[in-house]
Predict the 3D structure of the following.
Amino acid sequence: MSGSVLLSTAYLPPAEYFSKVIDAREVLIEREENYLKQSYRNRCYILSVSGPQALTVPVYLGSFHKTSIKDIRIDYSKRWQQVHLGAMVSAYSSSPFFLYYYEELEKIILSDHKFLLDLNMELLTTIFKMIRLEVSISYSSCFKPLNKTENDFRYRISPKEESDYVSIPYLQVFGQEKGFTGGLSIVDLLFNVGPESVKFL
């Protein structure tokens, strides 16, 4: 067991995100940073019949100043919940463990959280339980400068950055036609592998 791991908040983040937690005693989620666009903070990728598909939670942003991640509110003027859930059903309804996990995730996504941070935290703690990852999780109390903290992965796990993380291949719904696709949301692993998910991180 190592010490603390510092991570950004993330919406149904990729398997790489969870791989950083396996040997940790404590997970700290950053809540004092400014919101970062085009990141996993409000975006994930699932595997559809046509390939990786981005699912983005729409948010309100301050017009003239940087907005703290803890103040980012979800924009419900767009039908994102129905879009995300419909995409998951289309992509994973035939997966081996879809029926075991989908209903609980659906309930959280439909809960109308006001803040992105709250939605992400409830999904994260629920998925930790689903993949049987026992770890203490809490928010950071202040912003720590970059490269000052060991095991700081806040900005190293990003859809815009090339990752050196190598996914362990597993059977995917559309894998026979396309081959294995890595870099996807943890839900891809969860729906396809179920309680064995932690072994593939």
Summary: The longest strand covers residues 2-8. The chain has a mean pLDDT of 92. Strands lie at 2-8, 24-30, 43-48, 51-56, 59-60, 73-74, 136-139.
